[in-house]
Fold:
Amino acid sequence: MTNLKQKAVAHHGHDQRTDWQDAAKRDAAHADRESRSAQRRKTAAIAGLTGLTLLCASAPFNAFAAEGASSHYLPGAVGDIFLAVPPEPGLLVANTFWYQTGSTDIALLEGQVSLGMDLDLFLNLTSVTYTFETPVLGGRYTMGMAIPFGQADIDGTLRGPLGGSLPFSDDSFALSDIAFIPIQLSWNSGLWSFKLWESIVAPTGGYDSSGSDLANLGRNYWSFDTVGAVTWFNPESGTEMSIAPGVMFNTENSATNYKTGTEFHVDFVANQFVSESLAIGLRGYYYKQLTGDSGSGAILGDFKSDSFGIGPGFVWIPKTGGGQFTVLGKWLHDFSADNRFESDYVTLTGAWQF
Structure:
């Protein structure tokens, strides 16, 4: 892991980068050239983190109406590596293919009670971030946005006002709710890195409250997510541990008079580098509503929800990409879910640093 240590030092220390550049100009020996190549690959991994951080902070999960046993929080999308490491200055573009399949026993869809519902959700989430070279409050300043669109398919049974039931099936292909990160600040100190950011999810996605569409990809309300992250990385062993807790506040859905309660969520990542270009490990999340749902449309009461999931993941930095391209993937399985979809999540991400 000697090259891995050199990469971490080069990323976090300006003086070390200067030495690296001087060595390049002096046409260093082959070992030095290998170190520079390793640094580029490490930078690509960190670049992948930045795009995923944006997605986790703000990407909407919008299979249907606001009160559909889900929210704007997207489990596990915070990233797959170095959740708090300061990103390299410049432009990053990341694209994530997201698939979720799950079920729930009870949910509200546009004011109607569903006594069972199955979901298949396909999302394509494209994020663009830019990190400024000039420090802000002693850290790296990043801003960006995420644009999701996709296909949602749901099946279930609606309970009528007289106690009867009616099977239904619906699907939708549309833009989902666009998310913005106006501020993200990152710091590094030795083996530790820290990050804080705020994301805003705007109700830009497709939403129909007429009752003819139950599979809406918009949620018709705003969300504000405040998130922090901490990363510990030992370059000698190639071991990383990261955690990212956050609190999300929601406004009321004006079409249904339903307000989702305040939500707590935490994502965690553990990685072990098995080579200079490949890391494998675990991903997981925990979600819990701090306050119950409210409003005249909350006919099931506070409907507090919680869930927990964990699964394997990988990070691959192909040599053919010149260190500027990273591939990241994972599978999360929910081991518990109350008043929320119990799901399996599969993601595959490509990130490009410019």
In short: The first strand starts at residue 90 and ends at 104. Residues 30-58 form the longest helix (29 residues).
